[in-house]
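Format notes (please read before filing issues)

Several people have asked whether sequences and structure tokens are stored in separate files. They are not. Every record keeps both together, in the order shown below: the sequence lines, then the token lines. Line labels are part of the format and must not be stripped during preprocessing.
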Amino acid sequence: VADAESARRAEQRLRRLVAASTELVVVVRSSDGAITYLSPAAASTLQLTPDRLDRDTLLELVAEEDRARVGDRLDAVVRDRGTVRFECALDTPSGRRLLDCTVTDHADDPDIRGVVVNANDVTERAALTSDLSHQASHDALTGLLNRQGFLQRADRAQTAGQAMAVVLVDLDGF
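Then the structure lines:
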């Protein structure tokens, strides 16, 4: 009885930890890619309800331009029984989300029987990185390239062996 109570408490603790986690956990059946489990964070971020489990595949959620690449990565995980990491975009009812994913094959584990996707939503981080990059190379008032942005483009053109022209317009006294 004590062992059964300890096991029940351990399971309850694990359920609470998963429920409180911000990491998305999705289990996908290896044979057809159907989603068989969603953590609460995954259900919330992806806006999927339990009634859609076993109906939807993970690849149906992946943005069209990323599907082939993600499909290849999932196939490699199943074929090689390994782990792979990548970023991909998912289309959700509230918009596009960028996820940093770690995918591991657990098809041989009788308690899981599938591919486990652990993911973090990095949409906001990617947007901030893009904004910072833009601010570093563009003038805040005009939106035009600043000196740093100009020099970066000039270096790229020179490295690629491309010609570059500069037009100077003096607006003093305009």
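For reference, the curators noted about this record: Strands lie at 24-28, 35-38, 83-92, 95-106, 114-121. The longest strand covers residues 95-106.
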